[in-house]
Amino acid sequence: MALSLRRGTVSRITEATDEFVRLVVDGTPCIAYPRLTGAVEVGDEVIVNVQGRELELGSGGFDILYVNLTRGLDGGPALPDAHVMNLPYTPLQAAARHVEEDGPLADSLDGMPVVCCSLHSQVAPVSAGLRRHQLRAAYVQLGGGALPVSLSDTVRDLKQWHLLEVAVAVSPCLDGDVQAVTCASALAWAAGQGFDAVICAIGPGIVGTASTLGHGGLAAMEAIHVARALGGVPVVAVRYSEADARERHRGVSHHTRSILELCGGVRVAWPRGLRAPDWLTPREEVDVEGWHEDCARLPLSHMGRGLEDDPYFFMTAFAAGRYARDLVAA
């Protein structure tokens, strides 16, 4: 069996919200998504998926609750009028209401900036760059990393601090504030709801194979093409690092280069004063004055590195948010 499942007992709950729970099962850290698998309490008999932890993947370190044998087998009713399945034809398929079912979508983004990120760790600094009184920003999560939006502590924090207003899960992602079938409908819905800007990214973690085309960061390419086709202004958040030990990610990452080679003619935000590689043209030079102070207020992390460990990673993402903010103000 490809699934690695184990039976256990919940011994402790360390954090609990309506959408995300951290718990301990037989001494091992675990996470649960109560909107998917129901409530969980100490003493419950559960089945958990242990594969990520056993393989010591980047997504490892904890197990994931698969089913609660104590209270999760009642076969509760599906959401009313929900006709589209998340994770269809898998053991976790569940019906969810989608934005496409709830009324017409905007015909055009009408110049709305869409910041296209290749990593989830860019979302917070982009949001810091977008920060402006009364600017309404939505987050749209695409496949390429973790699928549940509710896994992200960052998104929860940004919503609490009013830097993001809503989180949209685009299939195969799930468990957002709202659900969309496609990136196109998610962006059209955001425009129709009056949002000023959208941040598109993958969830925490990234699918990667060290190859040019086999990585989750190419989700940014989809966002670029869709935003442009719908009359929006896609803005690329460059992945840049001077601290990454891997040559392919030092300087401007090969992920960003592959995205730009596949798209072409897209606006690339770049911090004014930071030396750019000669091939990175055209680019938009952005005044990022105050970036460090704005970003220091947020819990930033990239591959275990914080703001002082890898400052240019966060600066370049901030530049994309600041450029999008200036587009809204223009």
List the defining traits of the structure above:
OB fold (Dihydrolipoamide Acetyltransferase, E2P); five-stranded mixed β-barrel; 9 helices; 24% helix; globular
The averaged pLDDT comes out at 92
Tell me the helix content: 10-25%
- Helices and strands, in order, run as EEEHEHEEEEHEHEEHEHEEEHEEHH
Gyration radius over CA? 20 Å
The overall number of domains is 2
Unreliable runs: none
User: Count of helical segments?
Assistant: 9
Note the gap between the termini.
56 Å
Q: Main β-sheet, in a few words?
A: 8 strands, parallel
Shape: globular
SS content category: alpha/beta
Fold and architecture overview:
With about 325 residues, this protein is an alpha/beta fold. It folds into two domains: about 5-70, Beta Barrel (OB fold (Dihydrolipoamide Acetyltransferase, E2P)), CATH 2.40.50; about 100-330. It contains nine helices and 17 strands. The strands form four sheets. It has an eight-stranded parallel sheet, sandwiched between helices. Strands 1-2-3-5-4 form a five-stranded mixed barrel. A two-stranded antiparallel sheet has the order 6-7. The longest helix is centred in the last third of the chain and has 19 residues, at about 310-330. The radius of gyration is 20 Å and the shape is globular. The relative contact order is 0.14.
